[in-house]
């Protein structure tokens, strides 16, 4: 792949929020210990945006040390002060919304999503910071009190993917530090710029140096070094199941807990009585938003056979309306993130064809795009539940339609993958909605909405191989704490000795 620099030969990202070639350790913007860098490109234009350090295990060690130095003071701050610092961070983010939107759109290569959600997410988390509470416990003696304390782990680690780097960074870092931990986080090598910009704003907001440390780099290098570090006390990981398993293995060796936010193959179950005027645009948006590179993307449509043909026709018509193009054009869908993903998604489209599924629309690279990693929104019909395109996460704008006869079969097919992240049900019948909400094996269920969206403070996470642990809800801050039971007796005068009874004394 040829990376184009602009005519001046310099990287093209123009933002004071990104320090070119530097990452954040202990409040300082530093290169990697090796001096090597990674090119971050705009996947729509294949232009170089910026360079970031190729972090090493030594850099992770330096970051852990910085986080250890910052920890005692951060832990001991009153929770209200920590909350206020998070609110200040959220305010600064909001002031820079337009710039952050541009950075994230360029590095992910997608059309603008409008104001980024990070300020709101952080305000929600900040509101939890001073509500970390224990409970009082009954005791065997009136001289005693018992209670629990919720305490931070210390230095914690996190690894995030590239598909929504800003929100992932805000929710993972926000919850961990709200609880009083200090953190070492590695963003994805493909999209590390929004996280670096957010970290810069955190410093400006007054969050002390060393509380947030961002080590950029590759997964097998800086990434692997974080859970393997013996003084990291807890981990959060968002990414693919394969990498999640490797991170979990490293955590097992060090006997530390973690949460995993992994992939999905989310079903959209459409019953014959569904409001298709609402369902069709929502389902197409759900698979083309971010070019289908969303863990929650509803990538399987499980439809009652009686409306199959009508639905396929309407989905295809809607998909053909999706305008594809670069982030700065007036379009609905951008490119995929990288050449590797491009190859992977096109490979799955071939697999679908080979398995006998019918390409109703899309199925290749849109004409006129010899640069950038574009792929057409693609609809497959005639898909059977066991085909690989119906079982494996494609992470692209590829939708597979599977016909079923009734509710029982719909549940079987919807639950018939290893994943369990999000599931949607489209029906006008409340009874069907209630039964399906209970029967679907997913961490989030949307009734008459795609992506399980629209809820404030909803805990987010997976069933089955989609992971465990929940982010974003009120409990997400508690998850970054450990519980200590305190049993406390005051200084009690010693009880008088019971005199021996006469018969005992004779023995
Ligand atoms: P990935 O697993 O390849 O990479 C994720 C992160 O892990 C990156 O920062 C990467 O550098 C790092 N990494 C890679 N190998 C590593 C190793 N051996 N040790 C430590 N870190 C390593 O995933 P991806 O392709 O970047 O992201 C897409 C995946 O993320 C999809 O499966 C998607 O569903 C999932 N995802 C899940 C959620 C969720 O909330 N459930 C959200 C977004 C994305």
Automatic annotation (TrEMBL):
Active-site residues, as the UniProt record annotates them:
261
Listed A to Z, the keywords are:
Oxidoreductase
**Which positions fall inside the Aldehyde dehydrogenase domain?**
29-486
Cross-referenced Gene3D superfamilies: Aldehyde Dehydrogenase, Chain A, domain 1 (3.40.605.10), Aldehyde Dehydrogenase, Chain A, domain 2 (3.40.309.10)
The keyword Oxidoreductase belongs to this UniProt entry's keyword annotation: yes
Please give the SUPFAM superfamilies that the UniProt record associates with this protein: ALDH-like
PANTHER family noted in UniProt: ALDEHYDE DEHYDROGENASE-RELATED (PTHR11699)
Q: Which family does it belong to?
A: Belongs to the aldehyde dehydrogenase family.
Protein name listed in UniProt: Aldehyde dehydrogenase
Question: What is the organism field in this record?
Answer: Nocardioides eburneus
């Amino acid at each position: 792949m040829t990376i184009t620099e602009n005519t001046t030969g310099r990287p093209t990202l123009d933002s004071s929020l990104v320090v070119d070639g530097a990452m954040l350790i202990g409040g300082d913007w530093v290169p990697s210990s090796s001096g090597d860098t990674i090119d971050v490109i705009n996947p729509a234009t294949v232009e170089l945006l910026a360079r970031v350090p190729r972090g090493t295990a030594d850099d992770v060690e330096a970051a852990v040390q910085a986080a250890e130095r910052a920890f005692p003071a951060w832990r001991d701050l009153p929770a209200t002060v920590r909350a206020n610092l998070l609110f200040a961070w959220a305010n600064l983010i909001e002031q820079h919304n337009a710039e952050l939107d541009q950075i994230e759109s360029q590095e992910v290569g997608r059309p603008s999503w409008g104001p980024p959600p990070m300020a709101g997410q952080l305000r929600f988390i900040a509101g939890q910071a001073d509500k970390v509470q224990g409970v009082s416990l009954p005791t065997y003696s009136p001289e005693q009190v018992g209670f629990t304390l919720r305490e931070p782990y210390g230095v914690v680690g996190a690894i995030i993917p590239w598909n929504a780097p800003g929100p992932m960074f805000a929710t993972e870092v926000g919850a961990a530090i709200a609880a009083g931990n200090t953190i070492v986080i590695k963003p994805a090598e493909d999209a590390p710029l929004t996280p670096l910009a957010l970290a810069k704003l955190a410093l400006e907001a007054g969050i002390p140096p060393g509380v947030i440390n961002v080590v950029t780099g590759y997964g097998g290098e800086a990434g692997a070094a974080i859970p393997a570090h013996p003084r990291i006390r807890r981990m959060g990981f968002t990414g693919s199941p394969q990498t999640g398993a490797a991170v979990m293995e490293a955590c097992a060796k060090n006997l530390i807990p973690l949460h995993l936010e992994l992939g999905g193959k989310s079903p959209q179950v459409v019953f014959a009585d569904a409001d298709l005027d609402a369902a069709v645009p929502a389902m197409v948006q759900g698979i083309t938003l971010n070019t289908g590179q969303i863990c929650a993307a509803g990538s399987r449509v499980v439809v009652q056979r009686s409306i199959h043909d009508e639905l396929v026709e309407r989905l295809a018509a809607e998909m053909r309306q999706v305008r594809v193009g670069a982030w700065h054009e007036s379009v609905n869908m951008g490119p995929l993130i990288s050449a590797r993903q491009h190859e992977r998604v096109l490979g799955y489209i071939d697999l679908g064809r080979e398995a006998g599924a019918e390409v109703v629309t899309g199925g290749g690279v849109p004409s006129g795009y010899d640069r950038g990693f574009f792929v057409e929104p693609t609809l497959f019909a005639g898909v059977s539940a066991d085909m690989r395109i119906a079982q494996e996460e494609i992470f692209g704008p590829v939708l597979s339609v599977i016909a079923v006869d009734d509710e029982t079969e719909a549940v079987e097919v919807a639950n018939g993958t290893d994943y369990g992240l999000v599931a949607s049900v489209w029906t006008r019948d409340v009874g069907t909605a209630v039964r399906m909400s209970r029967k679907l094996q997913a961490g989030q269920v949307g009734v008459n909405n795609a992506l399980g969206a629209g809820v404030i403070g909803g805990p987010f996470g997976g069933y089955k191989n989609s992971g465990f642990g929940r982010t974003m809800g009120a409990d997400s801050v508690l998850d970054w704490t450990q519980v200590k039971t305190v049993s406390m007796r005051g200084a009690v005068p010693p009880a008088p000795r019971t005199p021996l009874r006469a018969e005992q004394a004779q023995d």
